[in-house]
Design goal:
Methane Monooxygenase Hydroxylase, Chain G, domain 1; 4-stranded parallel β-sheet; disordered C terminus; 375 residues; mainly alpha; 12 helices
Length: 375
Protein backbone atom coordinates (compact mmCIF):
# COMPACT_ATOMS: atom_id res chain seq x y z
CA UNK A 1 0.00 0.00 0.00
CA UNK A 2 1.29 3.53 -0.79
CA UNK A 3 2.07 5.65 2.28
CA UNK A 4 -0.46 8.23 3.54
CA UNK A 5 0.97 11.73 3.99
CA UNK A 6 0.15 14.26 6.67
CA UNK A 7 0.09 17.00 4.03
CA UNK A 8 -3.38 16.55 2.54
CA UNK A 9 -2.52 18.62 -0.55
CA UNK A 10 0.49 16.42 -1.33
CA UNK A 11 -1.58 13.29 -0.77
CA UNK A 12 -4.30 14.61 -3.06
CA UNK A 13 -1.76 15.20 -5.85
CA UNK A 14 -0.36 11.68 -5.54
CA UNK A 15 -3.90 10.28 -5.57
CA UNK A 16 -4.68 12.30 -8.69
CA UNK A 17 -1.52 10.96 -10.33
CA UNK A 18 -2.56 7.38 -9.61
CA UNK A 19 -6.02 8.08 -11.00
CA UNK A 20 -4.65 9.64 -14.18
CA UNK A 21 -2.31 6.72 -14.84
CA UNK A 22 -5.17 4.32 -14.14
CA UNK A 23 -7.27 6.23 -16.67
CA UNK A 24 -4.48 6.03 -19.27
CA UNK A 25 -4.30 2.30 -18.67
CA UNK A 26 -8.06 1.93 -19.06
CA UNK A 27 -8.08 3.86 -22.34
CA UNK A 28 -5.09 1.89 -23.65
CA UNK A 29 -6.79 -1.40 -22.79
CA UNK A 30 -9.98 -0.39 -24.56
CA UNK A 31 -8.03 0.72 -27.62
CA UNK A 32 -6.21 -2.63 -27.80
CA UNK A 33 -9.41 -4.64 -27.43
CA UNK A 34 -11.43 -2.54 -29.86
CA UNK A 35 -8.72 -2.51 -32.53
CA UNK A 36 -8.69 -6.31 -32.69
CA UNK A 37 -12.46 -6.56 -32.41
CA UNK A 38 -12.67 -4.20 -35.38
CA UNK A 39 -10.46 -6.57 -37.36
CA UNK A 40 -12.07 -9.84 -36.30
CA UNK A 41 -15.65 -8.55 -36.71
CA UNK A 42 -14.75 -6.45 -39.77
CA UNK A 43 -16.09 -3.28 -38.16
CA UNK A 44 -14.49 -0.27 -39.86
CA UNK A 45 -16.48 2.21 -37.75
CA UNK A 46 -15.04 0.75 -34.55
CA UNK A 47 -11.53 0.94 -36.03
CA UNK A 48 -12.05 4.62 -36.84
CA UNK A 49 -13.28 5.22 -33.29
CA UNK A 50 -10.02 3.77 -31.95
CA UNK A 51 -8.03 6.09 -34.21
CA UNK A 52 -10.00 9.08 -32.95
CA UNK A 53 -9.17 8.16 -29.33
CA UNK A 54 -5.49 8.80 -30.00
CA UNK A 55 -6.08 12.48 -29.28
CA UNK A 56 -7.60 11.57 -25.92
CA UNK A 57 -4.54 9.49 -25.06
CA UNK A 58 -2.25 12.35 -26.08
CA UNK A 59 -4.12 14.78 -23.82
CA UNK A 60 -3.86 12.35 -20.92
CA UNK A 61 -0.13 11.99 -21.54
CA UNK A 62 0.48 15.75 -21.53
CA UNK A 63 -1.66 16.38 -18.46
CA UNK A 64 -0.12 13.55 -16.47
CA UNK A 65 3.38 14.65 -17.46
CA UNK A 66 2.63 18.13 -16.18
CA UNK A 67 1.31 16.77 -12.88
CA UNK A 68 4.49 14.69 -12.39
CA UNK A 69 6.68 17.73 -13.00
CA UNK A 70 4.55 19.82 -10.66
CA UNK A 71 4.98 17.25 -7.87
CA UNK A 72 8.72 17.05 -8.44
CA UNK A 73 9.14 20.82 -8.41
CA UNK A 74 6.76 21.72 -5.58
CA UNK A 75 6.92 18.71 -3.26
CA UNK A 76 10.53 17.57 -3.74
CA UNK A 77 9.62 13.91 -3.08
CA UNK A 78 12.19 11.51 -1.64
CA UNK A 79 12.64 7.73 -1.30
CA UNK A 80 9.45 5.81 -2.21
CA UNK A 81 7.58 8.85 -3.50
CA UNK A 82 10.49 9.91 -5.70
CA UNK A 83 10.69 6.46 -7.29
CA UNK A 84 6.91 6.44 -7.79
CA UNK A 85 6.82 9.80 -9.57
CA UNK A 86 9.90 9.20 -11.71
CA UNK A 87 8.64 5.77 -12.71
CA UNK A 88 5.29 7.34 -13.54
CA UNK A 89 7.03 9.66 -16.00
CA UNK A 90 8.52 6.64 -17.77
CA UNK A 91 5.34 4.56 -17.69
CA UNK A 92 3.32 7.39 -19.24
CA UNK A 93 5.50 7.11 -22.35
CA UNK A 94 4.91 3.36 -22.56
CA UNK A 95 1.14 3.83 -22.27
CA UNK A 96 1.08 6.53 -24.93
CA UNK A 97 3.08 4.30 -27.26
CA UNK A 98 0.66 1.43 -26.60
CA UNK A 99 -2.14 3.73 -27.76
CA UNK A 100 -0.18 4.52 -30.93
CA UNK A 101 0.24 0.80 -31.65
CA UNK A 102 -3.50 0.22 -31.19
CA UNK A 103 -4.09 3.01 -33.72
CA UNK A 104 -1.68 1.30 -36.14
CA UNK A 105 -3.60 -1.97 -35.71
CA UNK A 106 -6.89 -0.16 -36.43
CA UNK A 107 -5.45 1.34 -39.62
CA UNK A 108 -4.48 -2.14 -40.80
CA UNK A 109 -7.97 -3.39 -39.83
CA UNK A 110 -9.62 -0.79 -42.07
CA UNK A 111 -7.38 -1.87 -44.96
CA UNK A 112 -8.00 -5.57 -44.37
CA UNK A 113 -11.76 -5.13 -44.01
CA UNK A 114 -11.93 -3.88 -47.59
CA UNK A 115 -10.80 -7.29 -48.86
CA UNK A 116 -11.95 -10.90 -48.32
CA UNK A 117 -10.75 -12.36 -45.03
CA UNK A 118 -7.62 -14.49 -45.23
CA UNK A 119 -7.63 -17.46 -42.86
CA UNK A 120 -8.73 -17.49 -39.24
CA UNK A 121 -7.75 -14.87 -36.69
CA UNK A 122 -8.09 -16.97 -33.53
CA UNK A 123 -4.41 -16.79 -32.62
CA UNK A 124 -4.36 -13.05 -33.22
CA UNK A 125 -7.38 -12.59 -30.94
CA UNK A 126 -5.70 -14.70 -28.27
CA UNK A 127 -2.57 -12.60 -28.63
CA UNK A 128 -4.62 -9.44 -28.07
CA UNK A 129 -6.05 -10.96 -24.88
CA UNK A 130 -2.56 -11.78 -23.61
CA UNK A 131 -1.06 -8.39 -24.50
CA UNK A 132 -4.03 -6.46 -23.12
CA UNK A 133 -3.97 -8.56 -19.97
CA UNK A 134 -0.27 -7.82 -19.53
CA UNK A 135 -0.94 -4.08 -19.75
CA UNK A 136 -3.75 -4.29 -17.18
CA UNK A 137 -1.68 -6.40 -14.78
CA UNK A 138 1.38 -4.16 -15.18
CA UNK A 139 -0.66 -1.06 -14.25
CA UNK A 140 -2.23 -2.93 -11.33
CA UNK A 141 1.26 -3.89 -10.13
CA UNK A 142 2.42 -0.28 -10.43
CA UNK A 143 -0.50 1.23 -8.55
CA UNK A 144 -0.34 -1.43 -5.81
CA UNK A 145 3.45 -1.52 -5.62
CA UNK A 146 3.38 -5.30 -6.15
CA UNK A 147 6.69 -6.74 -7.42
CA UNK A 148 5.28 -10.28 -7.66
CA UNK A 149 2.63 -9.16 -10.12
CA UNK A 150 5.31 -7.28 -12.04
CA UNK A 151 7.36 -10.49 -12.37
CA UNK A 152 4.24 -12.26 -13.63
CA UNK A 153 3.89 -9.66 -16.38
CA UNK A 154 7.51 -10.19 -17.39
CA UNK A 155 7.01 -13.97 -17.50
CA UNK A 156 3.94 -13.64 -19.74
CA UNK A 157 6.02 -11.98 -22.44
CA UNK A 158 7.15 -15.44 -23.54
CA UNK A 159 3.52 -16.36 -24.26
CA UNK A 160 3.08 -13.23 -26.37
CA UNK A 161 6.27 -14.06 -28.29
CA UNK A 162 5.09 -17.62 -28.92
CA UNK A 163 1.71 -16.43 -30.21
CA UNK A 164 3.44 -13.92 -32.48
CA UNK A 165 5.55 -16.69 -33.97
CA UNK A 166 2.41 -18.78 -34.47
CA UNK A 167 0.60 -15.98 -36.32
CA UNK A 168 3.70 -15.25 -38.40
CA UNK A 169 3.96 -18.91 -39.49
CA UNK A 170 0.25 -19.18 -40.21
CA UNK A 171 0.20 -16.24 -42.59
CA UNK A 172 3.57 -17.05 -44.10
CA UNK A 173 2.02 -20.32 -45.23
CA UNK A 174 -0.80 -18.34 -46.89
CA UNK A 175 1.80 -16.31 -48.79
CA UNK A 176 3.55 -19.46 -49.93
CA UNK A 177 0.26 -20.94 -51.16
CA UNK A 178 -0.62 -17.99 -53.39
CA UNK A 179 1.35 -14.83 -54.16
CA UNK A 180 -1.95 -12.91 -54.28
CA UNK A 181 -2.22 -13.40 -50.52
CA UNK A 182 1.01 -11.53 -49.78
CA UNK A 183 -0.44 -8.08 -49.14
CA UNK A 184 -3.21 -9.27 -46.82
CA UNK A 185 -0.94 -11.69 -45.00
CA UNK A 186 1.75 -9.09 -44.35
CA UNK A 187 -0.87 -6.72 -42.94
CA UNK A 188 -2.06 -9.37 -40.49
CA UNK A 189 1.56 -10.07 -39.54
CA UNK A 190 1.98 -6.33 -38.96
CA UNK A 191 -0.95 -6.35 -36.52
CA UNK A 192 0.63 -9.28 -34.70
CA UNK A 193 3.88 -7.33 -34.47
CA UNK A 194 2.02 -4.35 -32.98
CA UNK A 195 0.57 -6.65 -30.32
CA UNK A 196 4.00 -8.13 -29.62
CA UNK A 197 5.36 -4.61 -29.14
CA UNK A 198 2.46 -3.81 -26.79
CA UNK A 199 3.51 -6.82 -24.71
CA UNK A 200 7.07 -5.47 -24.71
CA UNK A 201 5.87 -2.12 -23.37
CA UNK A 202 3.92 -3.93 -20.64
CA UNK A 203 7.12 -5.80 -19.80
CA UNK A 204 8.93 -2.46 -19.57
CA UNK A 205 6.34 -1.32 -17.02
CA UNK A 206 6.81 -4.54 -15.06
CA UNK A 207 10.56 -3.98 -14.91
CA UNK A 208 10.04 -0.41 -13.71
CA UNK A 209 7.71 -1.63 -10.97
CA UNK A 210 10.39 -4.03 -9.71
CA UNK A 211 12.80 -1.10 -9.49
CA UNK A 212 10.22 1.10 -7.76
CA UNK A 213 9.44 -1.53 -5.13
CA UNK A 214 12.81 -3.21 -4.60
CA UNK A 215 15.29 -0.67 -5.90
CA UNK A 216 16.64 -3.29 -8.33
CA UNK A 217 17.08 -2.35 -11.98
CA UNK A 218 16.46 -5.54 -13.93
CA UNK A 219 16.33 -3.92 -17.37
CA UNK A 220 18.92 -5.35 -19.79
CA UNK A 221 19.92 -7.65 -16.95
CA UNK A 222 22.02 -9.84 -19.19
CA UNK A 223 24.22 -6.89 -20.16
CA UNK A 224 24.32 -5.52 -16.63
CA UNK A 225 25.63 -8.85 -15.35
CA UNK A 226 28.44 -8.73 -17.88
CA UNK A 227 26.76 -11.09 -20.31
CA UNK A 228 26.14 -10.61 -23.99
CA UNK A 229 22.44 -11.22 -24.45
CA UNK A 230 21.05 -11.06 -28.00
CA UNK A 231 17.55 -9.98 -28.94
CA UNK A 232 16.73 -13.25 -30.67
CA UNK A 233 18.65 -16.43 -31.47
CA UNK A 234 18.07 -18.98 -34.22
CA UNK A 235 19.79 -22.36 -33.84
CA UNK A 236 20.30 -24.05 -37.20
CA UNK A 237 20.98 -27.63 -38.17
CA UNK A 238 19.97 -29.34 -41.41
CA UNK A 239 17.28 -31.66 -40.00
CA UNK A 240 16.38 -29.69 -36.82
CA UNK A 241 15.74 -32.96 -35.03
CA UNK A 242 18.42 -33.19 -32.31
CA UNK A 243 21.33 -30.74 -31.87
CA UNK A 244 19.48 -27.52 -32.68
CA UNK A 245 16.45 -28.68 -30.70
CA UNK A 246 18.61 -29.37 -27.65
CA UNK A 247 20.22 -25.96 -28.07
CA UNK A 248 16.78 -24.33 -28.18
CA UNK A 249 15.80 -26.17 -25.00
CA UNK A 250 18.96 -25.08 -23.16
CA UNK A 251 18.68 -21.50 -24.39
CA UNK A 252 15.12 -21.18 -23.13
CA UNK A 253 16.39 -22.37 -19.76
CA UNK A 254 19.56 -20.24 -19.56
CA UNK A 255 18.84 -17.01 -21.44
CA UNK A 256 17.25 -14.01 -19.73
CA UNK A 257 13.47 -13.65 -20.10
CA UNK A 258 12.55 -11.73 -23.22
CA UNK A 259 15.18 -13.23 -25.52
CA UNK A 260 13.42 -14.80 -28.51
CA UNK A 261 14.72 -18.35 -29.05
CA UNK A 262 13.91 -20.74 -31.86
CA UNK A 263 15.47 -23.45 -34.05
CA UNK A 264 15.03 -24.62 -37.63
CA UNK A 265 16.69 -26.42 -40.54
CA UNK A 266 16.88 -26.36 -44.31
CA UNK A 267 15.67 -29.98 -44.60
CA UNK A 268 13.61 -30.62 -41.44
CA UNK A 269 13.06 -34.22 -40.40
CA UNK A 270 9.60 -35.67 -39.84
CA UNK A 271 10.12 -36.04 -36.08
CA UNK A 272 12.54 -35.34 -33.23
CA UNK A 273 15.40 -37.70 -32.43
CA UNK A 274 14.08 -39.79 -29.48
CA UNK A 275 17.51 -39.89 -27.81
CA UNK A 276 17.66 -36.10 -27.83
CA UNK A 277 14.25 -35.92 -26.18
CA UNK A 278 15.23 -38.55 -23.59
CA UNK A 279 18.53 -37.03 -22.47
CA UNK A 280 17.02 -33.54 -22.24
CA UNK A 281 14.30 -34.91 -19.99
CA UNK A 282 17.04 -36.23 -17.72
CA UNK A 283 18.03 -32.63 -16.93
CA UNK A 284 14.46 -31.46 -16.51
CA UNK A 285 13.94 -29.90 -19.96
CA UNK A 286 11.01 -31.19 -22.00
CA UNK A 287 11.39 -30.75 -25.76
CA UNK A 288 8.93 -33.52 -26.63
CA UNK A 289 6.35 -31.00 -27.86
CA UNK A 290 8.84 -29.34 -30.22
CA UNK A 291 8.75 -30.19 -33.91
CA UNK A 292 11.30 -29.89 -36.70
CA UNK A 293 10.75 -26.61 -38.59
CA UNK A 294 11.88 -25.17 -41.89
CA UNK A 295 13.78 -21.87 -41.86
CA UNK A 296 10.90 -20.27 -43.75
CA UNK A 297 8.68 -20.77 -40.69
CA UNK A 298 10.86 -18.57 -38.48
CA UNK A 299 9.92 -14.96 -37.74
CA UNK A 300 13.26 -13.54 -38.84
CA UNK A 301 12.34 -10.06 -37.68
CA UNK A 302 12.89 -11.29 -34.11
CA UNK A 303 16.32 -12.82 -34.82
CA UNK A 304 19.66 -11.03 -34.73
CA UNK A 305 21.93 -14.00 -33.97
CA UNK A 306 22.31 -17.29 -35.86
CA UNK A 307 24.20 -20.26 -34.41
CA UNK A 308 24.81 -23.24 -36.65
CA UNK A 309 25.42 -26.60 -34.98
CA UNK A 310 26.62 -28.65 -37.95
CA UNK A 311 29.02 -28.17 -40.85
CA UNK A 312 26.43 -29.14 -43.46
CA UNK A 313 23.97 -26.32 -42.78
CA UNK A 314 24.62 -23.16 -44.79
CA UNK A 315 22.31 -20.14 -44.75
CA UNK A 316 24.13 -17.04 -45.91
CA UNK A 317 21.28 -14.77 -46.96
CA UNK A 318 19.21 -14.33 -43.80
CA UNK A 319 18.38 -10.62 -43.41
CA UNK A 320 19.04 -8.57 -40.28
CA UNK A 321 21.59 -10.93 -38.74
CA UNK A 322 24.21 -9.14 -36.66
CA UNK A 323 26.10 -12.13 -35.32
CA UNK A 324 26.86 -15.62 -36.63
CA UNK A 325 28.62 -18.52 -34.95
CA UNK A 326 29.23 -22.17 -35.80
CA UNK A 327 29.40 -24.85 -33.12
CA UNK A 328 30.05 -28.26 -34.65
CA UNK A 329 28.71 -31.29 -32.76
CA UNK A 330 28.37 -34.94 -33.85
CA UNK A 331 25.19 -35.92 -35.69
CA UNK A 332 23.25 -38.22 -33.35
CA UNK A 333 21.57 -39.88 -36.34
CA UNK A 334 24.97 -41.24 -37.37
CA UNK A 335 26.02 -42.51 -33.94
CA UNK A 336 26.13 -46.32 -33.88
CA UNK A 337 26.40 -48.87 -31.08
CA UNK A 338 24.23 -50.18 -28.31
CA UNK A 339 21.37 -48.14 -26.88
CA UNK A 340 23.45 -47.19 -23.85
CA UNK A 341 26.33 -46.09 -26.10
CA UNK A 342 24.00 -43.93 -28.19
CA UNK A 343 22.54 -42.43 -24.99
CA UNK A 344 26.04 -41.65 -23.70
CA UNK A 345 26.92 -39.94 -26.98
CA UNK A 346 23.68 -37.97 -26.78
CA UNK A 347 24.52 -36.85 -23.25
CA UNK A 348 27.94 -35.64 -24.36
CA UNK A 349 26.36 -33.55 -27.10
CA UNK A 350 23.75 -32.26 -24.65
CA UNK A 351 26.36 -31.23 -22.10
CA UNK A 352 28.64 -29.78 -24.77
CA UNK A 353 25.83 -27.58 -26.07
CA UNK A 354 25.09 -26.33 -22.56
CA UNK A 355 28.76 -25.45 -22.06
CA UNK A 356 28.83 -23.51 -25.33
CA UNK A 357 25.68 -21.57 -24.46
CA UNK A 358 27.03 -20.70 -21.01
CA UNK A 359 30.29 -19.55 -22.57
CA UNK A 360 28.35 -17.58 -25.20
CA UNK A 361 26.69 -15.61 -22.41
CA UNK A 362 29.96 -14.72 -20.67
CA UNK A 363 32.23 -11.80 -21.61
CA UNK A 364 35.13 -14.16 -22.05
CA UNK A 365 34.83 -17.68 -23.34
CA UNK A 366 35.90 -20.46 -21.04
CA UNK A 367 38.85 -22.40 -22.37
CA UNK A 368 37.00 -25.64 -21.97
CA UNK A 369 34.14 -24.43 -24.14
CA UNK A 370 36.56 -23.28 -26.83
CA UNK A 371 38.35 -26.60 -27.06
CA UNK A 372 37.44 -29.13 -29.72
CA UNK A 373 34.44 -31.26 -28.82
CA UNK A 374 35.28 -34.96 -28.72
CA UNK A 375 32.94 -37.87 -29.12
Amino acid sequence: MPPIHADSGYEAELTELRERISEMGRVAGEMISNSITALVERDAALARAVIERDAEMDRLEVGTDELCLHILARREPIATDLRFVTMALKIIKDLERIGDLAVNASERAIELNQEPQLGTLDSLARMAEVSGGMVALALQAFLAGDAEQAHEVIARDRTADALYAEVFRQFLSHMMEDVRNVQRATRVQAVAKYLERIADHATNVGELVVFMVKGQDIRHRGEIQGRRVPHGVLFLCVHNSARSQMAEGWARELFAPGVHVTSAGSQPASQLNPYAVRVMQEVGIDISQHRPKHISEVALGDVDTVITLCEEEVCEDLPGILRRETWVFPDLAEVSGSESEIEDASRRVRDGIRARIEAFLKPEREDAADSNFER
